[in-house]
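so my prof wants the structure for this chain in the tokens format not the other one, which i didnt know existed until like an hour ago. anyway here's the sequence
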Amino acid sequence: MDQVLGLYHTAEKNLSPVIAVDVIKRALSQDKLYSFGELYEKLSAKVNENRELGEDANVTAWMKTLEVFTYGTWSDYVGMSERVQLDDKQIKKLKQLSLASLAAENKQLKYNVIGQQLQIEKPELEAFLVDSIYDRVVVGKLDTKRQLLEVTNVVGRDVNGRRLDEMEAILNQWVSRTEDILETSTSHADECKKSAAARKKELNEYTTAVDKINERLKPQTSHTTPHHLPQEPQA
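here's what i got, hopefully its the right format
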């Protein structure tokens, strides 16, 4: 990326459509380069402020392609109504980036799912996966018996600003729900404590009342003088 950004900065002041497209193509073809966020942001700002760049159809087409490489997948490229022609090296890179997105969501990927998503025929698929592991796009192992790619790590991809806003909104909703749950749980716990204290007080009062009743029902000792039978007169 440093080499590509170096080219961009060299021509930044007088960036023509031809140079802008050339910088994009070089970035998409550069070995071991899988992050394009910084270049995309810089070029986007330049295109927005430069009328010549903004109105050039070729620049627009390649900027959309750069956006796909930065944030999207192979299916996004295929779905473009007007798309530029990629060479074999660029196609492979975009498919590797798409594999990284799949692997980030599922640590076990079936061969047939990968093949369908990336439009790679079965005879070429395993070689593609071996190359992707060798290039460190994904870290894992191939289970040929079960026809699986088992992923342990994956190269990081750029996240666009819109996606960050969505993620922040989701996180805020989660935090809000968690706070509500904690507040409800705390309130419920307080109510339980109050209820337990009230029941304990009632039980103590009941026990005291029972003790008093039992005390009153105990038999009392008699203090009256005993009666004596009259004695018979002696003969």
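also thought this was worth mentioning. Strands lie at 108-110, 138-143, 148-154.
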